[in-house]
Amino acid sequence: MEVAHSSRQSMLQLFNDPEPIRDRASNIFDLVLESKTLRHENYDLLAATCVQLARRESRILLMPQQINVATGISIKRLRKCESVVQRTLHPSFGKMVQPESMKNFCKFLHLPQPVQAAAIQIIKNVVNVKLHHNFNYTSLAIAAAAVFRAFGLIL
Predict the structure, then answer these.
(1) Is 47 in contact with 72 (CB distance < 8 Å)?
(2) pTM value?
(3) In the chain, which ranges are continuous DSSP H helix?
(4) Cα radius of gyration (the chain)
(5) What pLDDT digit, counting tens, does each position of 89-113 carry?
(6) Closest by alpha carbon to 48, among 20, 72, 18?
(7) pLDDT (tens digit, 9 = 90+) per residue, 18-40?
(8) Which positions ≥6 away from 64 have C-beta within 8 Å?
């Protein structure tokens, strides 16, 4: 753990961000470490990814090319690590094919009530038929397809 925290500190010093971004990057870093979703121990890669995500949340852009130049970490590895960190931070996408989650998803999109009802019914049918297990689609893609189909039925 000592190596992980020293990597995080050196990365935070390298980019010299304001305190809120440093705090958020540290929080993301600790969450990912605690979840043990990363199979490798490249803490510099994880720290750079956390800084990039914290900056993006604060609407301060840090391009992967900039990280590559400053640290020597490849862009491909940064993007791969970012997807792992995003899945760690937002695990609820896997539950999207549940009717309760679909209701929240529709509310978030500010969909009209008839479209929401149709989308929830479509998801219920997908779950009942176990259709979501037959294809290699993400839960978010299935939810988006249900909303698209609901708009076609209602409007």
Answers:
(1) no
(2) 0.59
(3) 2-15, 19-35, 43-57, 64-71, 75-89, 99-108, 113-129, 139-154
(4) 20
(5) 766 545 666 777 888 888 888 999 9
(6) 72
(7) 899 999 999 989 888 888 777 66
(8) 52, 75, 78, 79
